[in-house]
């Protein structure tokens, strides 16, 4: 990332492909949930605890365990960012984080950068397709020191409280939560060009990040020229 991105009041961060590798989500988080699902359904299918997640699934899957499991697996395989899947994944990941089996491998520049932004009095918020509870688990169990970075984060947005990340209206909804901050004072970082374009459409500053394991940005895309490959925002 080029230096000089100091001119913002709110830093809005994507998660997968921005603060941690895509492989952590695809090869660790997603398989953990898929593997844990059969036992969970076996033990808790009729529990009130599971009901809120089960009842959020489309009607045709709610009362049929095999169909429910097959639908879950299919959504995960296709990486569908639908809220009812994300809510259940977050619920399942809780045990993995609690036992220490899951720990979020943040890119090495992330925690120092977040600490610097926070110390300077600016706000840090998260916007991910992962559910807000899942976001909190991830930032609560990182490889950084200290491991729990939640105290640095002021607010959390997902597909439920903001909307899909490729829609301009979702960024407008986030902006509406903080009317005292002008759109141009926000900086959104993401690996996804459609998300960067949507944030820009709402008036935020936004640039794509380049990270190990991310798909290369198309050279011909105008945003590729402003892409950043590490957080150096606060270095003056
Ligand atoms: C909140 S951790 C799980 C990440 C996840 O499920 C996901 O879909 C990541 O999408 P993002 O919007 O962070 O790229
Ligand atoms: Mg992402």
From TrEMBL:
Its EC number is 3.1.3.77. Pathway: Amino-acid biosynthesis; L-methionine biosynthesis via salvage pathway; L-methionine from S-methyl-5-thio-alpha-D-ribose 1-phosphate: step 4/6; Amino-acid biosynthesis; L-methionine biosynthesis via salvage pathway; L-methionine from S-methyl-5-thio-alpha-D-ribose 1-phosphate: step 3/6. Its main location: cytoplasm. It is an enzyme of class 3 (hydrolase). Signal peptide: none annotated. Substrate binds at residues 128-129, 165. It catalyses: 5-methylsulfanyl-2,3-dioxopentyl phosphate + H2O = 1,2-dihydroxy-5-(methylsulfanyl)pent-1-en-3-one + phosphate. Bifunctional enzyme that catalyzes the enolization of 2,3-diketo-5-methylthiopentyl-1-phosphate (DK-MTP-1-P) into the intermediate 2-hydroxy-3-keto-5-methylthiopentenyl-1-phosphate (HK-MTPenyl-1-P), which is then dephosphorylated to form the acireductone 1,2-dihydroxy-3-keto-5-methylthiopentene (DHK-MTPene). Monomer. This is Enolase-phosphatase E1.
